[in-house]
Amino acid sequence: MAIHDTTGVLLNSTAPIEVCIQSDVQENPFVVQTADETTVFWADNRSSAGNGRQVFMQRFDATGTPLLAQNGVLAMQVNGNNVSYPRAFAAEDNSFIVAMFTAFDIGGGTAGFRVGRVTNTGTNLWSDTTRFCTPAKGPNGGTAYGIVPDGDGGVVAIWYTGKTTRSTPRVLTLGSHG
After folding, report:
1. What is the average per-residue pLDDT within 94-114?
2. Sheet of 95-102, strands arranged across
3. What secondary structure letter does DSSP report for 66?
4. Measuring CA to CA, which of 55, 103, 150, 167 is 20 to 30 A from 48?
């Protein structure tokens, strides 16, 4: 990872920065930028965290110094999935709203579209099994979705199914308490 200001000037002279050096698979990073920090979320399959991909996070200050554990912290427990694509945004209370779609039941998990809220240290504020959509009606390819704040502490999820001959855009709002 490298951090640049809005004019393109490199802010961290030690770039690139390793976000996670855990030996298992880390994939599909998603970056959230705030005024003074960069937070990276990614799908991670380390066996110590459960079956399949989980969502991990790492925060960095403006100089690129990691603010959490060396290999990040668990942000959302989503057992039983394969390749997944997390999304996140910074909420108004120094927390993050995180989402991930899981298309398959692997190792006893429950597939579907999930959302959770975590503190800036990864502590769950909502149940991280808040599933609001089954795989059959989930995002096409697990990537055709976005999340945005609802203006009242919750989240609006927007996705496109593309799974049948009748593809459907879908929208769902979850309140500030999940």
Report:
1. 78
2. 87-90, 95-102, 112-119, 131-133
3. B
4. 103
**CB-side exposure of 169: number of CA atoms within 13 Å?**
3
Residue 96 forms beta bridges with which residues? Answer: 90, 118
DSSP secondary structure letters along 117-176: EEETT--BSS-TT-EEE-GGGS-GGGTSEEEEE-SSSSEEEEEE---SSS--EEEEEE-T
Question: For residue 108, what pLDDT band results from cuts at 50, 70 and 90?
Answer: low
Cβ atoms of 142 and 83 closer than 8 Å: yes
Strand partners, 91: none
C-alpha–C-alpha distance, residues 29 and 42, integer Å: 4
Give me the DSSP letters along 4-55. Answer: B-TTS-B--TTPSPPS---SS-EEEEEEEE-SSEEEEEEEE--GGG-SS-EE
Give per-residue pLDDT as tens, 16-58.
778 877 777 787 889 998 888 999 998 888 777 666 678 899 9
- Residue closest to 30 by CA, chosen among 90, 91, 119, 80: 90
Over residues 116-171, the pLDDT tens digits come to 889 999 888 886 567 777 777 878 777 788 888 888 888 888 888 866 666 788 88
